[in-house]
Amino acid sequence: MNHTRSSLLFEEAKTVIPGGVNSPVRAFKSVGADPLFINKASGSCIYDEDGNAFVDYVGSWGPMIVGHCHPDVVAAVQKTMESGASFGAPTEREITLANMVIEAVPSIEMVRMVSSGTEATMSAIRLARGYTGRDNILKFSGCYHGHADALLVKAGSGAATFGVPDSPGVPADFARHTLTAEYNSLESVKALVAANKDSIACIIVEPLAGNMGTVPPREGFLEGLREICTNEGIILIFDEVMSGFRVAYGGVQELYRVTPDMTTLGKIIGGGLPVGAFGGKREIMEKLSPSGGVYQAGTLSGNPLAMSAGIATLNILKQPGFYQKLEEKSRQVAEGIAKAARDAGYPIYSTRVGSMFCAFFSKREVFDWPTASQCDTKAFAKYFLGMLDEGIYLAPSQFETAFVSAAHSEADIEKTIAAASNCFKMIA
Ligand code: KE4
Question: How far away, in angstroms, is 157 Cα from ligand 1 center?
Fold first, then answer.
């Protein structure tokens, strides 16, 4: 497959953009290749600058659940653009999308729009701190909530319960307020809560982890977090930036029937345009400026274009049968890939919830970061590059999720499974 133009563009990009990309994972570093420069997309496919076509399972990292360039979304954004891209003033569309989110997610009584998932989680944490008057937060290894300082933190060594920076530029003083537990381990949460009594403002969790690969919550995990937070006066934040409107119209909290105090959203509610959101109980949200004292702001928050794309997308998701059809496609492709691996005698650990799935290159169950991090990332890289050569575009990292869209066809799925079969035979 010819990648000449992408490689030339990458060399040029690296002279003017750090690492040649505007977000690190796009650089294909963990798979040891140059990234493809994408020229256009339509439906389930993306097309690179060398004219190669790929069945796309990245979907812009989640937003493109209805497929690329859905006519309803394109028309909505075009029409809005003719009336103005942004006013920096309130508009009716913001109320429309707010009402759609509130109707979809009963735990959200009020919602504030922002422009990225990072802004959503950063703001939700500040609000939780402002509401409780507490400084510490608790997150989980392997969960990613964007790049706010408080979240670029890893577990302190040994008995130290306080976090240490996970990136240069994050002051130790910031990191020390972030505690890190193990996903699917209520014991690790209870130990940290006991050691930091009455000082934790919130627990933020991906209720379905998608940033260490796709790792579902074990039975009782989410319910246990809910109980701990209720008993300890801790705000439970479900980071559904990836899973919101993805695994169900009401997100993971609808599927697993566990109610957080706050929810963060993004990706799908912007239909591919920059949007994030955070919402929750009225009594918490009203602490936000200007109704309350917790400051939060954004020039393009709730801008008309992004609102239009989000409204158009959610109107498609609301159509009867949307998630049932997506579930069947997702089951077919994930199970087909797992079967291809088995038939090739190559062990993978396969996970799926709704249209989020992952093939872990591991002989063992993957249920948290320690088990995910044991995966054979070199074998994954071979698989990724083999699939790319066969016209299948997966996320360029073992620790990401594959997304199926409504636009993926039977032919796409058959092509994907056949490609996986060839790749597993190649690396077995
Ligand atoms: P953004 O700031 O990238 O819009 O959202 C941050 C974020 C927050 N919470 C969850 C659960 C997320 O998955 C994300 C972002 N997801 C990654 C994909 N693993 C974005 C891709 C990238 O960083 O380029």
Answer: 26
Structural contact between residues 248 and 323, judged by C-beta atoms closer than 8 angstroms: yes
Last-in-domain residue among 294, 317, 340: 317
Burial letters 109-120, b for 16+ CB under 10 A, else e = ebbbbbbbbbbb
Element (H, E) at 386: helix 377-389
Q: Are 34 and 157 in the same domain?
A: no
User: Looking at ligand 1, which atom is closest to the CA of residue 267?
Assistant: 4
Q: Domain count for the chain, please give it.
A: 2
Domain edge (last residue) among 264, 299, 317: 317
Residues 39 and 166 in one domain: no
For residues 79 and 194, membership in a common domain is answered with: yes
Torsion, Cα of 58, 1, 20, 119 (10° steps): 0
- Those residues whose C-beta lies under 8 Å from the C-beta of residue 318, and which sit 6 or more positions away, are 249
* Residues 201 and 297 occupy one common structural domain: yes
* Sequence letter at residue 395: A
185 lines ligand 1 (CB under 6 A): no
Strand order in the sheet with 178-181: 110-114, 276-280, 262-266, 235-239, 200-205, 136-140, 178-181
Residue 269, class by beta-carbon neighbours within 10 Å (0-12 exposed, 13-18 middle, 19+ buried)? buried
pLDDT digits (tens, 9 = 90+) for 158-193: 655 778 889 999 999 999 999 999 999 999 999 999
Given a contact cutoff of 8 angstroms between Cβ atoms, the answer to whether 36 and 3 are in contact is yes
* Cα angle, residue 192 at apex, residues 138 and 120 outer, rounded to 5°: 5
For residue 290, whether the previous peptide bond is cis, meaning omega lies within 30 degrees of 0, is: yes
Q: Look at ligand 1, atom 24, and give the residue with the nearest C-alpha.
A: 23
Which of 48, 261, 267, 349 is labelled catalytic? 267
Residues 25 and 114 occupy one common structural domain: no
Convert the pLDDT of each residue in 59-114 to its tens digit: 999 999 999 999 999 999 999 999 999 999 999 999 999 999 999 999 999 999 99
CATH label of the domain that carries residue 265:
3.40.640.10
pTM of the model: 0.98
Taking the C-alpha atoms of residue 406 and residue 317, their distance in angstroms, rounded to an integer, is 9
What is the span of the domain harbouring residue 30? 4-69+322-401+412-420
- Domain assignment present for 53: yes
Among 235, 232, 427, 407, CA closest to 333: 407
